Sequence to fold (204 residues):
Amino acid sequence: MPRGRYSLHDPHDHTLLAEEHFHCAPGPSGWRYVSQLTAPSGDHSGSVDLALDELGRPLRLELHAASWQVRGAALDGVTWVRTDPTGTHATEGNVRAHAFTGTSPAFLIATARLLRLTPSEPATRVRLVAFTDPVLAPRTVDQSWALIAREAHATDNGPLTVDEYQVTALDTGEQHTVHIAGDVVLAAPGVELEHLESPPSTFD
Fold:
């Protein structure tokens, strides 16, 4: 069960936004990721709980940030309920999309699991609902993912396979690179893996 810490930065000016303490593991139904977020001040700033089925679809998502809450799942596309800090107003949303995304590295793993790309495949288009900080506002985004390299690196625990993805935002054309090993993000814009207690899990 990988357990560790990511630092999350503004991808433009590299300001530290939060630290995300996580653990994740494959299970009988798919994969689960749980994390707690800490602001630079040291205060608790949110949490992520994401469970995927064996095909990479979101069975359950629960996000907390700045007292806002989102609960979602794959249902007629993706469906979610967003609750305000007072708990008095809840709005439901539904979009014909494939999955969710957001600032947590968990969503990069989830999208990679959903697409299951191989290096020889052309880029694949995917529609996602992004929940943007700090109030978890939903926004539909279209991306293109391509697996451009897969390399095995020797480690003390045996070979570690690292996948390099090129991700393109289809509304702006902006491209960035994501490096993933198993169920751990090694590097991505705004994401740095600061500490990892055990090797990444491997998926079948």
User: Anything to note?
Assistant: Helices lie at 106-115. The chain is about 5% helix and 60% strand. The CA atoms of residues 27 and 54 lie 9 Å apart.
